[in-house]
Amino acid sequence: MGSIKIGALAAHFGRDVDRAVSKIETIIDSAKRDEIDLLVLPDASLGGYIDSLRNPDVSELPPTLDIDGPEISAIMAAAGDLTVCIGYTELSNGLRYNAAACVSGDGVLGSHRKVHQPLGESLAYAAGDRFEAFDTPVGRMGMLIDYDKTFPESARALALDGARIIAALSAWPASVTDRASSLPNDRQSRLFDLYDAARAAENQVVLVSSNQTGVMGSLRFLGQAKIVGPGGDVLAKTWSKGGLAVCDIDVDAEVDRARRVLHHLDERRVDAYRQEKS
User: Which parts of the chain fold into alpha helices (H)?
Assistant: First the structure.
């Protein structure tokens, strides 16, 4: 396939879905002018995130959308040849999910429902139950949402399913229990960067990490969007304010190079790993 251009967005998105669609269309148009091939938007881009992890206000939850509805369709129409990953709240069979869709002008390429739920998030969302990779114009990919990337098994499942790019969409806030005076010194700020690098390096994949910025209720989001190479090296990043991290990379060449001598997926010793107890 050769080199592709990847963009990871740090930006604020609130409850107003129509405004978000318009904003995203503008971002997509700019990305297309810059010849970006893959654009990863934050979790909850359409409708915003919950206002608290401890006690979310269930009367003011993010609006629910249908993956086949007009909002996602508008993103697909704007995307054209661009591959776009976007977060939203999905309603399915009466349940609300923190969800992500990967789309292009050809339709929905892949989807994911957040599996791991921190603190009181289960009061607002049901949990997903699987990690699956999918094929796109930029190669085989998978998606994680927020807390999913804390767990090595999440990214490993996608890598074992053939994903060479992992899009990690987040609405990741500063610590809610031990907040630092500045975001760069916050414990969650350090963990956010650590997980991005570790998940890329241990699976020898390219990880594209987006995040919300600004404030929603009691939550202050970190930003820190980035693109990480298969050796765990940060190739491009934003800081705590909004911005777009952009990088040109030949994904297959870099992944193959990382796996040439040490191939982590092939060299696992599954016979030595104890079966986990539920």
Answer: 17-33, 70-79, 152-160, 187-203, 251-258
Domain boundaries, the chain: 4-272
Statement: the pTM of the whole predicted model exceeds 0.85: yes
Give the pLDDT score at 183.
Answer: 83
User: How many helices, marked H, and strands, marked E, lie in the chain?
Assistant: 5, 15
Asked whether 101 and 167 are in contact (CB, 8 A), the reply is no
Contacts of residue 108, Cβ cutoff 8 Å, sequence gap at least 6? 67, 72, 76, 101, 102
CB 84 within 8 A of CB 71: no
**Could you report the per-residue pLDDT of 30-53, keeping only the tens digit for each?**
999 999 999 999 999 999 999 999
Burial 87-126 (b: 16+ CB within 10 A, else e): bbbbbeeeeebbbbbbbbeeeebbbbbbbbbeeebebbbb
Whether the pLDDT of residue 179 is over 80: the answer is no
Task: Domain 4-272: give its CATH code.
Answer: 3.60.110.10
| 27 and 9 Cβ atoms separated by less than 8 Å | yes
Three-class SS state of 208: strand
Alpha-carbon distance values, 268 to 52, 154, 203, 262 (Å): 39, 16, 11, 11
Distance, CA of 218 to CA of 89 (rounded, Å):
19
Specify the DSSP element, H or E, that contains 65: none
Tokens 């969007």 belong to residue: 225
User: Residue 114: pLDDT band by 50, 70, 90 thresholds?
Assistant: very high
Chain center to CA of 209: 6
Instruction: Assess whether pLDDT exceeds 90 at residue 278.
Output: no
**271 Cβ neighbours under 8 A, 6+ residues apart:** none
Q: How far apart are CA 263 and CA 267, in angstroms?
A: 6
